[in-house]
Amino acid sequence: MDERQIKLVKRRIYVHPRVQYQGLPDVPMDMLLAKMPGVVPFPGREYSSLMFILDWDHRLPSRRLFGRMLAFYSPKAEQRALREYRIRFEEIRENDKFPEFDVQDFDDILADESYIYLFLPTGFFRKVQLISPWRHTVTERDRQIVSSCVEDSEEYAVLQEQYGLKCGPLRIIGWVPPCMSGQDRWTVDVRYVTYCEGSSVWGRTFLADPLGRQVLGVTDFNMRV
User: Which of 115, 121, 189, 190 qualifies as a FRET site for 183, CA 20 to 30 Å off?
Assistant: First the structure.
């Protein structure tokens, strides 16, 4: 995350009380933010503000930390999230009497874009995920574009020759932001399944850019469904 975005994030930083009690993370907040991949607005959008909540993993002592990055396209959306945060914080404070009893976290606070960053208590960054419910929503037009991009690629031709469509057609999973892919722009995750066994699936992931109409990356995947 660059200095400009860190400055924007620092306007709204909050820490779960049970993370504060433990004196976590073990590094200054500026250092934690500097390790995080920056966020990029969805195509055609701009951020009006960002909010970062360092959340609790419901363990004492904590084994990991969750950084919730909430991005807003308008002041109205930010104010709505702030109201929800304050209500949740008061509920946590009211119920936080004894450490052996669980309390709430800050999950499900509405934002235009929601990300979760995973850290170790030492501040070591592990990974980031887009968790907004709309991430699986790809318009029919974009579906057609990314499918054509993949089908026109050399990698797809090789897979077709070797496997055909024995495991079904291309699967469009959803949007992938730059902070997850390492690419410069948002892409769509399109998957070609090469082998299935029980609940395990193997294949290739194509990161296709519907605006640039090209495949920007190809990797292997293995998952359980």
Answer: 121
In a shared domain, residues 128 and 69: yes
Q: With contact defined as beta carbons under 8 Å apart, do 208 and 146 qualify?
A: yes
Q: Do residues 18 and 111 both lie within one domain?
A: yes
Domain that holds residue 160: 137-224
Say how many residues make up the chain.
225
pLDDT band with cut points at 50, 70 and 90 for residue 34: very high
pLDDT at 165: 86
Of 114, 134, 154, the residue at which a domain comes to its end is: 134
Strand order across the beta sheet in which 65-72 lies? 13-15, 49-55, 65-72, 113-119, 125-130
